[in-house]
Amino acid sequence: MLSHTLILEIGIAVGLVAIVGLIANKLRFSVIPFFIIIGMVLGQHAPRIGMVDLTFTESKPFIDFMGRLGVLFLLFYLGLEFSVNRLIKSGKAIVTGGTIYVLLNFTSGLLIGWLMDMPFKEMMVLCGIMTSSSTAIVAKVLTDLKRTANPETEVIMGMIMFDDLFIAMHISFLSGLILTGSSSFWTVAGTSLLALGFILAFLVLGRKLVPAIDRLLKEKTSELFILIIFALLFIVAGFSETIHVAEAIGALMAGLVLADSQYIKKIEAMVLPYKDFFGAMFFFSFGLSIDIMSLGGAVLWASIAALVTVMGNLASGYFASKFSGMKPKTSFDIGFTLSARGEFSIIMANIGKAGALLPVIQSFVVVYVLILSIVSPLLTKESRNLWKLLFGSDPNTAKPLKKLSDLENKI
């Protein structure tokens, strides 16, 4: 029987998420760590105040379901904005830089997993956690710092697109490795190939259905329009789960197909509020699932992993700037910006949780994401000052001529 305070508890949860979001915006920080922290603080050790249980025991299944919807909307919206054609047109520099970025971060995951003596499945999840940059944080940082028009921003977004493509493939591999519950190599390989086949087939066949979908959407009321879009999203995501492909991949595929629709702008505008709301509840529900007292054992390794991630991303930023023909100092802009970790790292950890892997994965990702979601924007903001501090001013930069003698010498 449902508690009579259920709606009140959910209302309080949403209100608290909104309050910490306002605080984050006031401090000009990413909202993601704030959403996670408020969930942890109000999780398993929160007090009961009158009728309201701040552990949200009664409402937690509903909050968890809203978080699950958050994953679907986050990946669906990413698919709507993703363009394989644009990635191809971005050029060799982005593909090369993106490849180096993925290799360095994936190798870092292997190294940390080996040092932590993790089993193979946990190590593969850890590699995904350490390879997946946060598109949401990166986009917000670039907007807040007014760098969206900078030349290095095109490289950054191109590398993120390349990374997202890799993460989609890695999630399909993890689906076969973890979600099937099988230890047989052939079963895992078969499920992974099935996931890959599903992705490719859906992209090929789905895009041929876009004209039919557009006819279905033509001149529909906003109510029918959103119902049709949501029906497609949930059916595709739900079907993918039945064949042991992560539902998040199904949501991503649905977005990729609809990205070719002539109604793409209208779809994005309608989906955006749902993505923002349920995305916030996703981070909050993740925080609720974490026992804050269990994080101590993961602090050291997560801190080392965060440092390794920043150093590896600086290296990938160096190669990306070199191949793009940009100045070396842009490597700091690229590397620090790409170091942000957030939604996709948590999605990877949740796959591990669904597969009943070691709980250290959950503790690790909390500390790791909190560190990099806070430190990365700060380092990005100060990237040029840090470059100047370490390497001095760019000798090719023209200095202002203030004296008459300077002007005469220049002539």
Automatic annotation (TrEMBL):
List the GO cellular component terms.
membrane
Query: What GO molecular function terms would the record report?
Result: antiporter activity
- Write down the superkingdom of origin: Bacteria
Q: Where in the cell is it found?
A: Membrane
Cross-referenced InterPro entries? Cation/H_exchanger_TM (IPR006153), Na+/solute_symporter_sf (IPR038770)
Q: Name one GO biological process term.
A: proton transmembrane transport
- Keyword annotations of the record: Membrane, Transmembrane, Transmembrane helix, Transport
User: What is its membrane topology?
Assistant: Multi-pass membrane protein
Q: Where is the Cation/H+ exchanger transmembrane domain?
A: 17-380
Q: What Pfam families does the entry give?
A: Na_H_Exchanger (PF00999)
The similarity annotation says:
Belongs to the monovalent cation:proton antiporter 2 (CPA2) transporter (TC 2.A.37) family.
Q: What is this protein called?
A: Cation:proton antiporter
